[in-house]
Amino acid sequence: MTLQCPKCTSRAIRPSNYKTGWERLLALVYRHPFRCKHCGHRFFEFATKGQRKTMFESNILAKAEQAFAGLHSEF
Hints:
Blueprint: E1 13-15, H1 21-27, E2 31-36, E3 42-46, H2 49-74
């Protein structure tokens, strides 16, 4: 699944948190909130919960790798 920001066309996208109950209801029809890492634009896109979870986990893994690389370079 490759999402693209509708504002800046960046592919650096991450899942965004739900803000209201309506947004959770939209999730029942696979419309989930996402945020662009480049411009910060928040938008809704079709995705299954599994796809969203995979994106979330890969985002956490990337942050952990960056933190480890930063610690490793200090020594």
